[in-house]
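Known limitations

Files may contain more than one protein. Parsers should not assume a single record per file. Below, a two-record file is shown to illustrate correct handling: read the sequence, read the token line, then continue until end of file.
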Amino acid sequence: MPGVTTVVLAGVGGQGTILAGDVIAKVAVAQGYDVKLSEVHGMAQRGGSVDTIVRFGDCVHSPIVDPGVADHLIAFELIEAARRLTALSPGGRFVVNTRTIQPLPVLTGAMGAPTGIEAALAYEGAVFLDAEALACEAGSPRSANVVLLGAASYGLPFPESSWRDVIASRVPPKTVEANLRAFDLGRKACSEGACGV
């Protein structure tokens, strides 16, 4: 769809992909775009896959994403990055958190842990960010999702002030300062080249 930007966020339950998608959608609305947001929760409460899709532009007809159309894929962990790779358009922006969350069959011993994922993703053009380390540096270990928002913000056409306003309105009041630091660290990592932009 011409003039429409598609962002796919992929992670597992508890990583904050839904909050991150909501922030992106609200920032886009604040900038006057038509926005469609969809979420696929699956078994999110049990650590299952969670996808959040945000589409914005002058006129967005559907939140549905066909394979190969996502302009941005922001993956909250390595296995989900590999699972959602088919969503990414040729030349799309692909930012991946270096964390791995082992799926239940691996944890129960029913199958072995996957290997070689990071190398395969790098071959596909992924750029990597240690969001957990940056969240800890910001003083809020649970704000890795906001670090990834900072990384996403560097490649999206919205003013930094709008991101900061929406984040401050969406996170618990006691965590606003730490979350804004987390956002700044994710954005700074990209400005210094960590995100390949």
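...continuing to the second record:
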Amino acid sequence: MSEALGDDLSAETIVAALTTRWLGRPTHFRRVTISTSDELKHLAALGANEGTLVIADEQLCGRGRMERRWLAPARSSLLFSLLFRPTFLSPDRAQFVTMACALAILDAVREVTGLQPGLKWPNDLQLHGRKLAGILTELEVSTEGKLDWIVLGVGLNVNVDFRELPELADTAVSLSSVAKHPVSRLALLVSLLFHLERRYEMLRTGHSPTCEWAEHLLSLGQEVTVKSPEGTFSGVAEAVDELGALLLRLPDGRCMCILAGDVTLR
């Protein structure tokens, strides 16, 4: 599908199309890589600039949250990682960068395709009840307790034909399958980076993305089951707090604050 669009990505075509000032500059493009995030974490440790982008047509060991594998046929998806050095944020607010990224993906998908996904707490995007994209956030905190860097790894199903991945056909979806036509990966990437740079600059001014992010959460007000490191709990997903933690109202009336986990609707 990408070939039909003339959507053959390269560092040169990406940089030529960018409308950002610093995000995606520089761009490192790989036909195949083990993991864009692992490669970018290595670059971060060597002092790479904020805004550095590592993007690949194919990842051999792509991963999502909770060490799950991220599967995508070559040239079917957007698979990339971005480096941020948000020294203006405390480590407990690192999730703000993830929220900004999720909102930027929504911006880009709406702008390029007209489709309107929603967010699944904490870091996924869903369309028609199935997973469209995921964000994996990894960070380094200095010995002084300050954020040194954040690497955001993004997997977005653009032109995936899930008939080739029958094990995911019931749980995942791609933009092309809903739009009924191939979608340009380059156009999506350019739009996404533009909106993410804009939203990141808003973070610099002290703006919190939590309220807007929460407006797009599909599970709020719903009965859910949450699998967290502390155990499995069921209740009503009542709200999120300022830092993005889920506030779960248990059947006995208690409110539980969950920092990390997987949510399914009951």
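Parsers that stop after the first record will miss the second one. For reference, the second record is described as follows. The chain is about 25% helix and 30% strand.
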